[in-house]
Amino acid sequence: MNFPILSLIAFTPIAGILAVLAVPKKNEKLIRVIATAATGIALLLGIGLMLAYNYRDGAMQFVEKYTWIKTFNISYHLGVDGLSLSMVFLTVLLCFLACIASYRIEGRQKEYFVLYLLLETGMLGTFLALDLFLFYVFWEVVLVPMYFLIGIWGGPRKEYAAIKFFLYTLAGSVFMLLGFIALYFTSNPHTFDILELQKGSGGFAIGFQQIVFMALFLGFAIKVPIFPFHTWLPDAHVEAPTPISVLLAGVLLKMGGYGFFRISYPILPEAAKWFALPLAILGVVNIIYGAFVAMAQIDFKKLVAYSSVSHMGFVLLGLASMTATGMNGALFQMFNHGTITGGMFLLVGVLYDRTHTRDLKSFGGLGAQIPVYAGLLTVFTMGSLGLPGLSGFVSEFLSLLGTFPVFQVITIIAVSGIVVTAAYHLMLLQRVLLGPLNVRWKDITEINRRELVTLVPLMAITLFLGLYPISMLYLQGPSVAMLVEKVKGLLV
Amino acid sequence: MSVRELLINSVQFAPELFLVLAAFAIVLFDFLSRSKQRDLGIVSLIAFAVAGGMLWFISSHIPPQSSVYFSGMVTVDAFSTAVRFVICIVMFLAVLLSMGDRFHRDGDTAEYYALLLFMSVGLSGLSLSKNLLMIYLSLELVSLSSYILVSLTKREFFSSEASLKYFLFGALSTGIMLYGMSLVYGLTGSIDLDRTFAAVAAGGLNAGALYLAVVLVLAGLGFKIAMVPFQMWAPDVYQGAPTPVTALISVGPKVAAFAVLLRFFYKGIGDFGMNWYDLAGFLSVATMTVGNVIAVSQNNVKRMLAYSSIAQAGYILIGFAVPSALGKQSVIIYLLAYVFMNLGAFALVIPLIRAVGSEEISDLKGVAQKAPVAALALTLFLLSLAGIPPMAGFLGKFYIFSAAVQGQKLYLAVAGVLNSVIALYYYVRVIKYMYLDQPEKDLAVALHPAIVAAVIIAAAGTLSIGIYPEPFIRIVAGAVSIF
What we know:
The complex is a heterodimer of chains A (about 500) and B (about 475). By secondary structure, chain A is mainly alpha-helical. Chain A contains 20 helices and 2 strands.
């Protein structure tokens, strides 16, 4: 057994928790340093993982497997491949940056960072787990700290948003659990092992696949979120404190999309085919509905929240196509949405910290006041809008390109959503940066160095992947190809 | 039966005999010296520890001479041993809770602990019984002890109301059960469970009458586990009784009653062509739904936990309603988890309601900032009750749902998961007040060492079952293999 780098990544935050707990709660500076160090080490390990990863091989790497609950054939089974590597990297990156953005959190810092680090472990475990039972445990571990992080440090309606998030996600995930149990009892020999289940997937009857697919769909769809299960999202995103919004949008939503890639599609390919058209339609609804609702928002954060709904639609569309191009686009889109929307939420936070409002109608003319901020906001907005040269364009384009041969009409409708997307993003820029200056903000201060540290890496990645997208396709391509080979799309 | 035989037979029951002696000793001790009552808690604690140790020693070193004892009245097998052991844990924790609460007037202390000991003997007897008469006798011993325990703070209005309600409902349900048992005797000609089983298996009995008998016995035992529609007593009794007694009767009788349910239905009746599994399944859904839905609107923490325990019984009934090995295992696994998490929750409710001076959930505002450890521990137990991994309650739910899915009882699984979502709301409501709200007044939560010990034991159980369940699963699988 080689070096257990995956366990190390996943449990570094837990070590951080133990260290934070040992510090008296008055010593907030030390607590912040420890939390930053823990997320920083996880980031370094994540970079190390990226360097050590063999990009030619699409199969599982760095596998760790130990028996856990023998009676049910459950094992502690971790591994990483092209589907999860980018998600793991996204998680450690955003956790580190959002940790720096968390310095301004007010009050009860010790509790905050303990929960924050627990959240990181839960998210990483979800992406690394190769056993359904383990996957479920990590999946649920994410919910608890998230409830507290929204509920304690959130905005005015934090309590409502927190419990809504908790109940919604649990409602989905318990059905997912039933789906897992059904898979266990139907597989022969009984197993929760994702890789074993993938091998034996041909044996599942189509009717059974459909039922289980729908059970898992409930769990994943609420997380993504797919219309009409999205109503928790605007509440949670708006009420959560800035760093938590970043993680919600950047990482938590990806857990749902990742579930399709890792579990639903390879284990239940027939059902995936059966559900491709409905999923494509839901994807288009997400894209267009999300965009229109975003356009109607005058709350900056709500606008970004609904733009998430819209962007995740491209993930669904790419998934539904079941083509290599579309699936690559979908996975790529998940990463890009994490960096770009994560950056957007950080920018919302920067502005809110200075003005204590998110009302778009009250801004205006800030472009001249705070040019660096304006520049950053423009870059991220353009990325979110899908401007060629930035990463969001590539993934959306791939997603549409892969879907067109399969669902032509749907793709055409989806493309029209881009117009709406462009419209609300441009309106956003106009309302915040252009026009006459609202005198209330004449003394507004420029973005500071700490905030720049959180934003510049995300911008660099957006730019890099926009100009050199093949790098990401090298990373995820072989694994996606294997997945497509396995599910054998609709065109074959 | 010769004296020698009697003595040999008795070795297997040394723990129970020891507990009876301890109970008498406590009463006598109290009678002889009025001044040293304070140590009676510790005496009972030691008694239960010793009884548990004896049980462990006997079960691992002295194999039973035969499967039945005392003319077939009781049986010693892996199942009864496991349940007796769980009961020892329950009683041990209950004594710790009692020591940490000190609700009782000094004069009642000896009676209180003696009753706890007697009750534990009754609970053990229920798990050992292989004979309808013995089941009835043990059940009465449990019931009578618990009626008195509930009414021990007789000066308080709610306590008197609670005890009267408990007594009246209890007496009625016991009568119903006795009637059911008499029907079983009338149909099969025996009160021995092996013989009733054989008579049922041989066929030719009036299935309708047998079904009625089964329903009546289920009703009687259903009272003990607060199964719908026999749950009405629970909220008032839970609220009115002294909190440690509430904790005990929410767990102890439930464990023993489920043990009897399994033994009576699977070893005493079995399958007779009329489907009582679906009746149990239906009652399970009704029980969990009623418990959960009403719990949502409760403001009194003890009443909330009462409805929660009704709901928990509903989940466990799923395992009872699925006639597979996994179903029975899930009953015991869930009960084990429930013992730790529910007693753990009560262990923290005792000092918290004392500190805030009220039983209202909304008065727990900001407790997390004043008593972070207590709030954290209570959160752990509540999340476990809600079935969030990696706590024991999740493993219990996992088992229950697995049994339902494996047994093709999808409606039970779906009802179970939907109920888990409802339940999350009211468990998290307590957490919300403790963590999300700001404290309104200064409060000092004093944790008695006994409470601390109980919380540590309960937390260790809750976490170890949840994180590394394999050893527990093996023991339970061995215990249930007798069916």
